[in-house]
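Hi R.,

Here's the chain you asked about this morning:
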Amino acid sequence: MKILMINGSPHPNGCTDTALHEMEQVFQTEGIETELLTLGTDAVRGCTACGGCKRVGRCVFDDVVNAALEKAETADGFVFGSPVHYAALSGTMTAFLDRFFYASGGFPDRPVACVVSCRRAGSTAALDQMLKYPMISNMPVVPSQYWPMVHGARPDDVQQDLEGLQTMRQLARNMVWMLRCIEAGKAAGIPRPEHERHVWTNFIR
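And here is the predicted structure, written out as tokens:
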């Protein structure tokens, strides 16, 4: 099994990476393969809603989003992590997730864990924003024993957030459990849930 981890921070060794690394250690102990993609400081343009991805199967802007979509094809689960900027996800992560999900339609039935890091506040608003993506895409959301967030202005601060790091480890263990449950279900012949074709309803008369 393989988990694709996306770090939406401009700092490859920052606070968000510290949280994701705590999870990665659990995955490795459990024999789960991981791949970490850090968005970094490269510009990620926003979605223009051109619809071109529906024709070509990938985003028309060929950058890290398409690279991630290719890696996602072989992933059994996902971890998305982002710092908190003005009580929201980083602009880079927002642009990335908009295009990643719009171009693919999501990856139904593959579990997702969402993680945010902040200095002090705004974490729950950012987490709520991130959860919107898998919850509209038939993707199970992995829980933990507290909201999946860490606090600190620097990685050293995050290392002192013992509750936050513990939450990360439990989040990772729950992800492993969910992946193994899905695998056991497949082996037992339990079919995936049926997904009806999405009906769009407009209320403007």
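One quick note: DSSP finds seven helices and six strands in the chain.

Cheers,
M.
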